[in-house]
Amino acid sequence: MKSRMITLVATIAIAIGFSSFIPRASTDSFLETITKIFKEGNSSELAKHLNPTVELELLEEENIYSKAQAELLLKDFFNRNKPTSFRINHQGNKGSTSFAIGTLVTQSGSYRVSVFMKTDKSKLLIHQLRIEHS
User: Fold this and answer.
1) Alpha-carbon gap, residue 24 to 40, rounded angstroms
2) Which of 17, 20, 73, 81 is least enclosed by beta carbons within 10 angstroms?
3) Total-model pTM
């Protein structure tokens, strides 16, 4: 009986561990897509990768927005700040969460971009996005 319980607990622990694991290739592929989207300044494509509610800090204005509200704010930002390049400088992950920090260069200046992602129902989504002056 005791060995069955130990086996059951170990099996559950392993299953939970694997269910929250994000393969590095998956994160890298996601970040390649995000890099392309930022280079293009494409708010509608970026919105496809947002959680239904997202914490957005856009030039010192921070709040929790719906995906649609965030898309409009990002569209306005990209219209005012036409991107010329975007590069990921640092990235990492732990369990079901990952992050990337990059530099967005626009016609009007450079910005530090921080993207915090989480796996939700086996899909990687942006839960927090920060765009700050460099």
Assistant:
1) 24
2) 17
3) 0.79
